């Protein structure tokens, strides 16, 4: 798609660190928005509110999709990875879901939160298909944004404390989040994506998105392989 060849916007990238009351492993958050004023406002809001999180927070922000793709790539030793990315749905010439798909194909560890000033239904299906875990309204997401980040951060902290395992293909698997484990459990009960969505209060597209993330984490190609692995490892 050629996004990686774009240059980062001069003067649009900022990095800041906020110390939380309790510092476990650091939490690195990225923000991608083509509107520089909105980007600055969201960054400042997140900096001021992130003190309530129980991890040391580092924030980077940019107007450039290419820069965001690069920043989300995990380094060779696993350090400085971007764990959470906030991404606007309408970027210059491309959409947030398009960029999210590129990022997750290269950096499946990154959890992506979508944001938009438009009606959420405009992007909901495309966002879910791309692997974006949730979509928030910019006009009202103040406290809701931090609640979402806090929940994701807690799940990641729990996952990081669990020992990784290796599947039959020699792939080092990544621990599943609480939501992913719930989807696995319901899937083992022979429920469809639509039925699982109804049980969990999410859409079938969101369930499908979580299933794709589960397959990436387990290093398998099909959902049947994922289910077989979860049964054999007693994951749920």
Automatic annotation (TrEMBL):
Molecular function as annotated in GO: DNA binding
Response regulatory domain sequence ranges: 28-153
Residues with PTM 4-aspartylphosphate: 88
A Gene Ontology BP annotation from the UniProt entry: phosphorelay signal transduction system
Domain HTH luxR-type: residue ranges: 169-234
Entry-linked InterPro entries: CheY-like_superfamily (IPR011006), Sig_transdc_resp-reg_C-effctor (IPR016032), Sig_transdc_resp-reg_receiver (IPR001789), Tscrpt_reg_LuxR_C (IPR000792), WH-like_DNA-bd_sf (IPR036388)
Sorted UniProt keywords: DNA-binding, Phosphoprotein, Transcription, Transcription regulation
Gene3D superfamilies attached to this UniProt entry: 3.40.50.2300, Winged helix-like DNA-binding domain superfamily/Winged helix DNA-binding domain
Keyword Transcription regulation: yes
Protein name: DNA-binding response regulator
Species in which this protein is naturally found: Bifidobacterium callitrichos
């Amino acid at each position: 798609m050629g996004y990686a060849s774009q240059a980062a916007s001069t003067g649009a990238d900022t990095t800041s660190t906020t110390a939380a009351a309790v510092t476990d492993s650091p939490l690195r958050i990225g923000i991608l928005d083509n509107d520089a004023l909105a980007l600055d406002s969201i960054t400042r809001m997140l900096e001021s509110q992130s003190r309530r999180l129980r991890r040391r927070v580092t924030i980077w922000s940019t107007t450039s999709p290419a820069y965001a793709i690069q920043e989300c790539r995990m380094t060779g030793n696993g350090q400085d990875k971007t764990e959470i990315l906030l991404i606007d749905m309408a970027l210059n010439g491309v959409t947030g879901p398009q960029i999210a798909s590129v990022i997750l194909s290269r950096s499946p560890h990154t959890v992506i939160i979508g944001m938009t000033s438009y009606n959420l239904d405009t992007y909901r299906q495309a966002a879910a298909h791309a692997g974006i875990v949730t979509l928030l309204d910019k006009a009202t997401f103040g406290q809701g944004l931090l609640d979402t980040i806090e929940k994701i951060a807690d799940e990641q902290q729990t996952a990081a404390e669990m020992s990784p395992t290796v599947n039959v293909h020699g792939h080092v698997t990544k621990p599943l989040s609480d939501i992913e484990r719930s989807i696995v459990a319901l899937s083992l009960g022979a429920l469809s994506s639509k039925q699982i969505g109804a049980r969990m209060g999410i859409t079938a597209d969101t369930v499908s998105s979580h299933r794709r993330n589960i397959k990436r984490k387990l290093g398998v190609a099909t959902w049947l392989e994922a289910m077989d692995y979860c049964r054999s490892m007693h994951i749920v």
